[in-house]
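User: Some background: our group keeps a shared notebook of sequences we're curious about, and every so often someone picks one and asks for a predicted structure to add to the entry. Today it's my turn. The entry only has the sequence so far, pasted here. Could you supply the structure so I can complete it?
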Amino acid sequence: MAAKQDTRPYQLIDLFVLVYQTKYGKKPTVNKYRDRWGFTDMIDSIGYERSVEVVKYFLSIDRPTHTLVWLFNNFDRLDEQIKVRDEDRKRRAKMLSETKKRVEGGS
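Assistant: Of course. Here's the predicted structure to add to the notebook entry:
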């Protein structure tokens, strides 16, 4: 009996195509057989949920092109950027609330 194939890499490919098409108005050229290995590596390294975030973030940043080759070579850096961005947002929100308390308390 054949082992059940993992469909998560194909789900990420479909997500990439959908978001790319929404952004650029055309479908990207994707080799599903070749690119599933890159997405499988991404899932193995950072997990499926985090991979979804990385794909969405990758297509939201301002770049001249959004190629899968670049994504596969740099997804770990993008993951780190997302972590730093989220920590910065939390820190800024905390600073904002502390400042608001000081200003309101001093009035």
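Suggested note for the entry: The mean pLDDT is 91. The helical segments are 8-24, 32-46, 48-60, 68-106.
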